[in-house]
Design goal:
The protein has helices spanning 27-45, 49-65, 67-78, 82-106, 146-154, 168-179, 195-203, 215-227, 250-262, 282-294, 316-331, 360-363, 379-387, 402-410, 447-451, 470-473, 480-491, 495-508, 512-540, and strands spanning 7-11, 18-23, 110-112, 121-128, 131-135, 158-162, 188-190, 208-212, 232-235, 241-244, 274-278, 335-338, 342-343, 346-347, 350-353, 370-376, 391-392, 394-398, 416-419, 436-437, 454-461. By secondary structure, the protein is of the alpha/beta class. Bound molecules: nicotinamide-adenine-dinucleotide.
């Protein structure tokens, strides 16, 4: 087939209807896009930060104007409700707003103390990588794409973006938003396609790669990136545990645990994927979960007044993973208390008990509407089970005693812990978000999301070395005692360490007094000159 004619169909998962298509970008076009963004970067990077922030604010205006278009396309592309798509727009705009506001401060010059080099000035500046390649997933096709693009742009990079083939219509929509800001459009390029297009982008050697996706893809991209030593930031999967302690508010834990598991059909990286409940409250919790789950209506509507709490899964492969996990669990003794059936792309909200860590559903990411609940003896057992994972994105702890919850939270190997709620950490645009273990090495949200798209460049600035500067004197031979006096005088831990080498230097070195007096005279002269300059400056004002 002529690669130029290959297309990706846009399919509504709820109805199965095709609503459009996009031509796949060829490998040669991906390489060309990277070259062109490389050529465009100096012009964008040279713009003052405040100017870049002004242009990004213009983009923010365009996004807000396009809200209804965006929620309509995500609703068709992904199957989530218009309301859930609107949450994405809100979270995205919040981040754009904060990043544009704070970037000049986050990326500004920082003074660095001079250490022993008193007569020079030291500072750092943030410099862009160059071209950033951003590869994204389908599950939050606005919120997981736009913030890293905006952060990379604010930092002075140009960007080549590869949206997920599963949310290709949203990718095309996002591309059109950039085209609506003529000052920004020349510095962002979209390429469309599946894993092959993503691989072509990696092989095009951007200056930095940023991937949000599965652990499986992360491993593949890490290996490819390593071949060219391309720096690689990744935000990968989660298997977020929820711990219900003995003193938890059981009704609230059940209500919001169910919501955290089934919201956007369980297809969020921070969905509640497994629950550990203290044995004393286990029966009460399971009964409350069944009551809440029964309320979770399932269906699809393209209207803004959608009556359903849960929509379809987004594509067939995701349904297969959910069913594989359910079958595996049941074959090993797991019991489905509610749900479990599939109709079309809809799988009922499913509550599973009698589970353990021999089952895939407790160790691998399910990414679907399944809530497996395991009974534990005490906090230690709950913590052990929660930490028994190769992923570590976020975790949820429920207890009426905040100090108790905090003690447990501190022992969890994750990037974020949310106490007495589910998923309310993610929408907070300045709260750093990201995982440990295989869940990721990057941080989104807040200053870190922007600064990770920069190198730190350091400057040491001043006139030629001054002859009386101790830092100059130690460059000459025969200054061993002076060096030891500096070492002890500045860094000695005990009084002896501080005083003895200085005394040794002053009493034993014939050149010492001369050097000290030259230094003192030099320092004095510098102070007098500084004072005079300050007085003159004040007088002129
Ligand atoms: P995925 O790994 O299948 O795909 C992600 C992107 O990588 C897609 O654009 C895909 O085309 C591309 N890709 C796939 N193979 C590639 C290859 N060999 N080379 C280059 N690119 C390649 O993930 P997905 O199914 O789209 O997204 C769901 C996953 O993302 C889940 O695991 C979820 O937990 C994770 N996720 C993580 C976060 C986070 O912040 N940590 C947020 C959302 C989603």
């Amino acid at each position: 087939m002529d690669p130029r004619s290959e297309c990706i169909d846009f399919i509504n998962p709820a109805t199965g209807e095709k609503f459009g298509e996009v031509r796949v970008t060829t490998e040669a076009e991906v390489r060309q896009a990277c070259r062109e963004m490389g050529a465009a970067q100096p012009a964008w990077g040279a713009k003052p930060l405040k100017e870049r922030a002004r242009i990004i604010k213009e983009f923010q205006r365009v996004v807000i104007d396009a809200t209804d278009e965006l929620t309509a396309v995500v609703n068709q592309d992904h199957g989530k409700s218009r309301g859930d798509a609107l949450h994405e727009v809100i979270m995205t705009v919040d981040k754009i707003h904060q990043y544009a506001k704070h970037a000049p401060k986050w990326l500004g010059r920082r003074r660095v103390p001079p250490g022993l080099y008193f007569f020079r000035r030291y500072y750092t500046e943030r410099t862009p990588f160059g071209v950033v390649g951003i590869i994204g997933p389908w599950n939050y096709p606005i919120d997981l794409m736009l913030p890293p693009i905006i952060a990379a742009l604010l930092a002075g990079n140009t960007v080549v973006v590869k949206p997920s083939e599963v949310a290709a219509a949203t990718g095309v929509m996002l591309e059109s938003l950039f085209q609506r800001v003529p000052e920004l459009a020349p510095f962002v390029r979209f390429v469309h396609g599946d894993a092959r297009t993503g691989a072509a982008l990696v092989k095009s050697k951007p200056d930095l790669l940023f991937l949000t996706g599965s652990v499986k893809t992360g491993r593949i991209v890490a290996q490819m990136a390593a071949e060219d030593m391309t720096p690689f930031l990744y935000e990968l999967g989660g298997k977020d545990p929820m711990l219900v302690l003995e003193d938890a508010d059981i009704k609230a834990a059940a209500k919001w645990g169910v919501w955290g598991a089934f919201y956007t059909t369980g297809q969020a990286c921070v969905s509640v994927e497994r629950v550990y409940v203290h044995e004393k409250v286990y029966d009460e919790f399971v009964a409350a979960v069944l009551e809440e789950t029964a309320k979770f209506s399932v269906g699809y509507s393209p209207d803004i007044d959608n009556p359903y709490r849960m929509g379809p899964l987004t594509f067939e492969r995701q349904c297969d993973i959910v069913n594989t996990h359910l079958h595996d669990a049941v074959s090993k003794g797991g019991e489905v208390l509610m749900g479990g059936k599939q109709t079309g792309m809809f799988i009922e909200p499913t509550v599973l008990v009698n589970v353990d860590h021999t089952m895939q559903v407790m160790v691998d990411e399910t990414f679907g509407p399944v809530l497996p609940i395991m009974k534990v003896q005490d906090d230690t057992h709950a913590i052990q089970m929660a930490n028994h994972s190769y992923m570590g994105l976020s975790a949820y702890v429920w207890s009426r005693d905040l100090a108790h919850a905090k003690r447990v939270a501190e022992q969890l190997q994750v990037g974020v812990v949310n106490i007495n709620d589910t998923m309310s950490h993610y929408p907070v645009s300045l709260l750093p978000f990201g995982g440990v273990k295989l869940s990721g090495n990057a941080r989104t949200h807040g200053a870190g999301e922007v600064t990770q798209f920069t190198h730190t460049k350091s400057y040491a600035v001043g006139g030629p070395p001054l002859p009386f500067d101790p830092a100059t004197l130690v460059r000459y031979p025969g200054q061993y005692r002076l060096g030891k006096a500096i070492l002890g005088g500045f860094f000695g831990v005990t009084p002896e360490q501080r005083v003895e080498p200085v005394v040794d230097y002053l009493t034993n070195d014939p050149k010492a007094r001369k050097a000290v007096s030259r230094t003192v005279v030099g320092l004095g002269a510098t102070a007098v000159a500084g004072l005079a300059a300050a007085l003159l400056f004040r007088a002129r004002r």
